[in-house]
Every structure is written in structure tokens, then in C-alpha cells.
Amino acid sequence: MCGIVAYVGQREALPIIIKGLKRLEYRGYDSAGVALLNSDGLNVYKKKGKVSDLEEHLLDQKNLKSHIGIGHTRWATHGEPNDRNAHPHYSQSENLALIHNGIIENYASIKQDLLNKGYTFNSDTDSEVFIQFIEDIKKNANCTLEEAVRLALHKVVGAYAIVIMSKEDPNLLIAARKGSPLVIGVGENEHFLASDATPIIEYTNQVVYLDDFQIAIIRDNKLQLKNIENVENTPYIHKLEMELEAIEKGGFEHFMLKEIYEQPKSIADCLRGRLDAKSGRVVLGGLRDYMNKFEHADRIVILACGTSWHAGLVAEYLFEEFARVPVEVEYASEFRYRNPVIREGDFVIAISQSGETADTLAAIELAKSKGAIIFGVCNVVGSSIPRATHAGSYTHAGPEIGVASTKAFTAQISVLTMMALMLGHRRGTITESNYMMLLNELEQIPSKVEKALKSAKLIEEISAKFKDARNFLYLGRGYNFPVALEGALKLKEISYIHAEGYPAAEMKHGPIALIDEEMPVVFIATKDSSYEKVVSNIQEVKARKGKVIAVVTEGDHDVKNMVDHVIEIPDTHEAFVPLLSVVPLQLLSYYIAVMRGCNVDQPRNLAKSVTVE
Ligand code: F6R
Question: Which is the closest atom of ligand 1 to the Cα of 403?
Fold first, then answer.
């Protein structure tokens, strides 16, 4: 949550910062601001709304030329979204400016101390307290800014990624992180800082990922890293593999639509080099050192939030069916505040697209403290979760920029499917012939997703009929139950229509009371082991005049004759159906949201990576 961009070097800072903020807008978009330093001093410009509103505001300003600057796009935590609460924030003297991503939990007591000393505040934010606090320490201890930042970091409780600039030192940026991401791009005589690599990739592929409790001092184009105890650390330069096209819309109207259409490729990328159906090999490099623990696990515990949690639910079915190992899927936010039982034989899997979700990170730390081995399934390379886990596999879906997760979900399921098949094979819980057949079928999934996407036009037409509905019900059974949850979540988050996902058989225990001629019900009724039962549930809804949209296996005429609309997907093994059946549901929510005039890529109140709890 919140996007940070900063630049110092030979070029003009403002265009780089604005472009970077637009790339980071998926992290928060309720206000934006920049601070620039030139002969007119250290000036802050900020505006409620999108980065484009800030740009408009900047048109009226003079002398924006600067070779150093910081910028921020906000997702409000403390204080409503308005101009005052937008970042950057000045210190009392206006000699310092700060941008901050995270939450300072003890800000109220620090603020009270500063108020007692006569400080005044221009915003309601914890971030302004942070920079005032740093300035107060600098004044009282009569120390350098670097020292004051270090002393302040010892006192604040919470999460932060910060970048600070100073009027007194036009070639200095100081940054620090704990719990919120910060990447430093190292160019030739220039440095970039950002919440993720997307604003940087255009200029350099050399990056340093700041660690928790590390401070970066960029002075006169030299980068120095120190820990909070003032011990110098050698920067480790990573080479970014990301391509610029991956973070652009590439002719699609929205990132979400582009990402839905990317799924044949993203699933293929995820399987590539790991799955070889001919030789019957599944290789996940990340598992190598922990294979013994994985193979002999008594239980698998999965930690995740939101869509990633739904992928975890699919994995529960996969691991139990193929490897006969019990699985528990936990909301990370609940797990972290219980006193969960973690035993010697448990193998913990944490799933996260962003790799930054605060609750998932905290749940990982708790499980680690109880002696668990944690395996990460993440998409963003170099993010916090892959660094906090013992081992892991990246999903290789490429940057996911639309706030509603689509291609990350199918890539997560692809990794988890490979893990389940590999485990079943090693444990001898699937026969060799079944194993070979399953690997073969899994290899066909990218082309089957391609085929599923061919229904887009039909789904657009169906969407037009239901765009004004006030509620939706999504029902599925077995492997399609988590897909029903995911379909409902997609619709809620981008179209703001209330939707609920249920196991189809649970309908009779309550939700059936909601059914009338106004209620659209989406059934996932593919030809699998619970097909007949789901068909009975469809009849129950039709008997009560509900409007049914059914996702069916191609060639299914029985359901077609029973319901209002059918969307066909290719046939596959029941365990792989979620990879196909979720596609029409993604498209349904997309088209409905577009027709309702919603901002699909940046739905209200949401942010892509939830770095606060
Ligand atoms: C829904 C969505 C969220 C995320 C959740 C976890 O479309 O994107 O529900 O799935 O915030 O995020 P990650 O996977 O980054 O941990």
C-alpha cells in the first residue's frame, strides 16, 4: 500500500517521478505528491486524487526543475484522503521532506511529546509525526540527519519504507525500511528508489533490495548501506529479469483484461522447465533442500489471504487427493493472532502474489517461531515473503498490475498442482500411469485456457443482461467450490455488486431463501464427480425462478436446456478444472464492472499489496 518513488542523479527528477508514480498507482490512488529541491528551495506539491490530478496541479507551478526529488501515491491509513494528508510531509522547519509507506503504531505518544514541546502539525498522519520526530532528534542531539534517522528508527514501532530529502544537502537521499518494500535502482551516476521495480526497469536493471532495519544513504551518487546499529553492509546487486512491455497495457483497455488474456502464457511460463510430461519429471528447484521434510510431512498448513487463500483451498483438494496428506488452509490474518498448533511433521506453505502482504508475513514469522519450515509460493521476485521463507517457488506470472488478481491465481494453482503431483508420485499415492496421464493433461492446460478465452464475446453479452443486478450467488462443488468463492470476490471488488460464493450443497441450508426471479446464480457445473448433484441444485434454483448462468464442460446439452445462459470450457481432468473454470468468471466480473462504469484496475478502497494489517 502506498507507492514510493525517488530520484537523484543527472536527469530531471520530476518526469521520472511522475511516470514512476503512475506505474505504482495500483498501490494506492487517493492522493499523490512530490518534493523537489532547486534554487527556490525545498518545495512540496500535493493533491487529493490520482497522479493525473497532481500533474494538472503542477501545470500552474513554476521552476520545477530539480535533479533530486521524492514522490508518493497514497492509500490512506491515518487521516482522510485530502491535500493536507497527502505526502510528502515537511518537518517543522520545512528543511526536511519525507515520504512513507506503512504505519507507525506509536505515533500518538510521539506526537503528544512533540505537541508538548510546541510543535504544530499540518496533517492527521503518522508520517508527519515521523519526520517531525526525526528533526526534533537532530536538533536535540545536534547530530547528522543520518544519525537522527537511525535514532528515530530505534524508537518507532510499526512498519515503514521511508525516503527523506534535506534542503541543507541537495545531493542526499536517506531511505530505510521495515516491513514495507523498497528497491534501489543503481544507474550510472544516478539512483532510483521505488516500492517495486516497475518505475526503475526503464532506466536500469541493476537493483538492490533493501532489507528490514537497513538504511540506505545515497550521497553524491554513491550508495552506502548500513544497518540500524550503524554497521556498514555491502550492497548486493541483483539483475532484474523483467521486460518493460510486461508493465504496459499492450493495446488492452485495462491491465486486468490484459492479464486475463495473458493466462495461457503465464501458466506456460510457470510450467516451463519444471514439468516434463514425456519423461514424467516435475522439478521445483526451491524444494530441493527440503524434499525430505516435504515428502514425509504429516500435515500441510497453507497460509494466505484473499485470492491467494482461494488458491490455497484448491491446493487442499489437490494435496489430499493426490498425496493423501491432510491440509489446513488458514487465513493468515486469523492464524497470526491465534496460538496455532504447529508440529514437528508440518510443512507450511505461504502463498502471496505480491510477497508483501503484512498478515501473511506475520503468520510466517509466527510459524517460524514455532519451528516450522516455510515454503513460499510468490509472484514478485525479491519481495519480502520469498526472503522471509526457507525456500520457495516463484509463480513466474509476470507483473500483475490490475488490482483484482487473475493470472497470479492460475499461476499459484499451477505451482501447487505440480507440488501435489510430485508429492503423490514420491509417496506412491498415485499410480505411475495416472501420474503420467495427469502430467500430460497439465501440459495441455495453457492451450485449453486459450480456448476458454474464446467465449469472451458471449460473456460480454451475458454481462449486459446482468450489469444492474444488486446481488449474485456463485455455487460450485469440490474443486469448483474455491472457484465460486473467487468468482464472487472478483465481482464484488471491481463492480461493487454484492456477491457470495457457496458450496452448491450448502445452498439449502440458508442461501436458497434469497432466490427469486431477481437473483442471478452462477453455477460451475462441469462434468466431474459432483456433476449430478450440482445439476439437482440448478433445478432447485430454477424451480424458484432464479436466473442461472452455468459454466459447463463443452458439449453439455443437459444443463444448456435447463438454464438461462451457458458458457462452455474445454474438458480436462477434474483436478485441473479451476484453471479453466475461473476464466469465464474473471471475464464476467470484468465486463460487468466496465459496463457499470467502474474503474476496473483501481477499484475504490483497494490496493494491490496490503502492507498494513
Ligand atoms: C483479490 C486480491 C486480494 C489478494 C490479497 C492477498 O483480487 O487481489 O484478495 O489476493 O490481498 O494478496 P497477496 O496474494 O499479494 O498476498
Answer: 8
pLDDT category at 219 given cuts 50, 70, 90 is very high
pTM of the model: 0.89
Grid cell at residue 234: 555491502
Tell me the domain boundaries of the chain: 3-245, 249-443, 453-606
Note the helical H segments in 124-210.
Answer: 126-141, 145-155
- The grid cell for 81 is 484522503
From 259, 313, 333, 354, mutation site for ligand 1 pocket: most ligand atoms within 8 A of C-beta: 354
Q: Strands 214-219 and 222-227, how do they pair? A: antiparallel
Give the CATH class of 3-245. Answer: alpha beta
The rounded Å distance from CA 353 to ligand 1 centre is 7
Q: Is 305 a catalytic residue?
A: no
Domains 3-245 and 249-443 share a fold: no
C-alpha cell belonging to residue 400 = 500483475
User: Does residue 488 have its Cβ closer than 6 Å to ligand 1?
Assistant: no
Pick the closest to residue 411 from 276, 311, 342 (CA basis).
311
Mean residue pLDDT across the chain:
95
- Provide the CATH topology of domain 453-606: Rossmann fold (3.40.50)
CATH superfamily, with its number, for domain 249-443: Glucose-6-phosphate isomerase like protein; domain 1 (3.40.50.10490)
Active site residue 608: yes
- pLDDT-derived band at 277 (thresholds 50, 70, 90) equals very high
The answer for residues whose C-beta is within 8 angstroms of residue 372's C-beta and 6 or more apart is: 301, 342, 346, 347, 348
